[in-house]
Design goal:
single chain; alpha+beta; 6-stranded antiparallel β-barrel; 2 helices; 12 strands; 39% strand; elongated
Amino acid sequence: QQWVNTLETHAADLLPLRRATLAAEVGGAVESMRVELGQAVAKGQILATIDERSAAQQVAEAEAWLRQAEVQHQRATNLFDRKAVTKAHLLDAGTNLDVAQARLATARLQLEKSQVRAPWPGRIAARHVEAGGFVAPGSPLFDLVDASRLKVRAMARAADVPYLEAGREVTVTLDAFPGEVFHARVERLGAELDPASRTLAVEAEIANRDGRLKPGLLARLDLSRREISDALVVPMSALVDLGTSK
């Protein structure tokens, strides 16, 4: 027969693969909220807009200034070629063109910042503002989580550290799904033991493509410590303590 000694780490946490709090990069009125709680979003999708109309107006003004600067620079170039203006006049026109281009780039950047976009695919875990509210730069807007894969994080005792290594297969059970066993793999180990508890952080990952498992659930992670092939296995009730022999 075969005897298997398993390592059990209790009260493991089920965590999303990625989590981020998306904050406002510009201040102003929240003009629109385009996603709801729990909604799946794609990378680059617009989640909200902040003072977007004002930013768009600044882009339009900067584009007009740029067109005017381009015309003036072309006119100065033509006049300089005919020796009708000095080189200083041409340089001034070139400087005005550079400033107009920079002004347009700044306005476009502000417009881009006024559109809050998802940095990666995920789901909206929380909304901290509503349309019509006013936010300052740095104000939290959304909590975004990527739960397509989940991390199972537990703390292993110091005595179990020699048996831990990345890549090992583990099994995971959850109180919310009694009788079911989920398969995962150790992906990361802590760099050092916690000095207070003498435990080492262990992280395994589990697939969650259907979104059935939710971050925050309590899990139990079982890791095979070692296996002894062809071992004789007998029930504890069959053992008799004869005392210590000398």
